[in-house]
Sequence to fold (200 residues):
Amino acid sequence: MCSGCKKQCLENLFLAKSKRITKMCLPCRDVSKKYHESHRCEHNKQKYFCLICDGGAYCEHNIQRAMCLTCGGTSLCEHECKKSECKSCNNPVDITIRHMLSASKQTDMLKNRYNQDEFVDYLFLEKLIKESNDTCCYCAEALNYDKRNARLATIERINNSLGHNKTNVKIACFQCNVSKVGNITPTTTPLLEDTEQSDI
Fold:
C-alpha cells in the first residue's frame, strides 16, 4: 500500500530509478517532487528548512527541530540516532545496502568510473548478500551489518580500474576489502583498527 495515496498500487510503481523499493507510488512521488520544487526559497532550499530564511524546521539551537536531542527531536530514536538510519531499530542489512549504494556512486562519480547502465542496484546487492551466506568471499568469516569493524560487510571491486559494476563486485569484509587481497590491481593499504563505532 502506498504511504501517500493509501491505495494498493502495482508493484512496478514502487520501483525507484535505483531499483530500490520505495514506500510511495510513482504518481505520489511526482506530486511530492513538484510540491517541494514550488516551495523553494531564493537560496534554492525548502523555505521551511532554510536557516537563513528562519525556517520553522530549526530550533533555538540552530539544529533541525526533529533532530535536536535537547529539544526531544521526534526523528531520533531511543538510541539517539535518526530513526530511519538506526541499525538497532531497523533491518541493518537494508541500511547497509543503502549506504553501499550511496557511497559507491559518490566514489565512482568522483573518480570518473560511474557507468549508469552497469552500476549495481538495491535488488542486485540484496541478492549478492543472500548468495554470500553472510560470509566474506575471501576469508570466509561471518559478516556483520551493525558495527564498523573488521567484519563489516562491504562491496569489493575486483578490478580497481572499473567502478562498482555488477560484473565487478563481490561481498567482502572490511578488512579484506581494504587489504585488496582479491584485486586484479592490488595495492597495499594499512588496515584500520577494529572499532566499536556504529556505521550510522
